[in-house]
Amino acid sequence: MQNRITSLFQIDYPIIQAGMVWASGWRLVSAVSNAGGLGLLGAGSMYPEVLREHIQKCQQATDRPFGVNIPLLYPEIDRLMEVVVEMGIKIVFTSAGNPATWTSYLKENGILVVHVVSSLKFALKAEAAGVDAIVAEGFEAGGHNGREETTTMVLVPTVKEKVKIPLIAAGGIATGKAMLAAMILGADGVQIGSRFVASDEASSHNLFKNSVVDAGEGDTELTLKELTPVRLLKNKFYRDVKAAYDQGYNKEALSKLLGRARAKKGMFEGDMEEGELEIGQVASLIHQIKPAAKIVSDLMEEFLDARKNLPSF
After folding, report:
1. Which pTM was predicted?
2. Do 8 and 147 lie in a common domain?
3. Which of 173, 174, 155 is nearest to 163 (CA)?
C-alpha cells in the first residue's frame, strides 16, 4: 500500500506505533518495523544513555525504518537531541512543546520531523515551523492529551481542511475499520498506542497489560488538566485524584499528590493501585495480548476487507 505516509517513511503500511512512555522499548519498536509499520521509541521515559542503548539494540534487531518520540518538555532535551543525531536516527516525532524550538536543528541534520497536536491552532503552528507531517490526536487517546477535548472524528477533518502536509490520525484507533474511517476523514495514516500496549513485546508490566485487556467502556477519564492533561485508567490513584478535586485542591496540591515517577510505578513496575495508568478509551475494544506483528497484520487485514466492502454501503 503506497501513499504519502508510506512514501515519506519508506514503510509498507501507514501504521505508526506511538512512542509511549514505559511501553515502547526496542523490542516493540523493532517488531512493528519488521512487520511493515513504523515503530517509535518512547524517549519520554528514558535517560539519554538508556535511549542510546535502545537505539543500538533496535538497529541490531531491524534494518527497517524506525524513529524516536521526544516530548519537548523533557528536562534533558538537549542531550536527547544529541543522541538521536549521533546515532543516525532519521525520523523524530516531537510532542508536548513548541515545534519551532527544535525542528530546524533536526532537519539540518537530515531528520524527518513529525509533531503531535491536539488542535488546529497547533497544527498550523507546526506546519509553519517546517515539520514534515502532523499527528492530529483526539481526546480519546491515552497518555497526555489536549485540554480542548476535541474528538478524533472532529479534529482530523478540521486539520485536513487547513493543512497541506501529510496528516496522521491518532486517538481511539485500534482496529482496521477505525483506521479506514480515519483515512476517509482525510488522514494519510494512523498512529496507534493503546493496542500496542497490550502486545507481547511492549515493555510495560504484564499486570498493566492485563488491566488494559480487562478494561470496559467508561473505565478511563481525562484528568489533571491543571498540570498536564492525562487519560487514566480508573484505579485507587485515579480515585485519590477525583477526591482531591472534590476537596478543592489547587494546582500545587495536585502536583504534590502526583509526585514523581507515578507513571513508572504503575505502567512499568506494575503497581495497579498507586500507579498512574495511562491508556486510551479504546482499551474497551482490546481483548487479547498479541504479538506486535499479529496486531499489524490484523489491522491491515480488517482495513483491506472494510475498504473492499465499502461500495456495498
Report:
1. 0.94
2. yes
3. 155
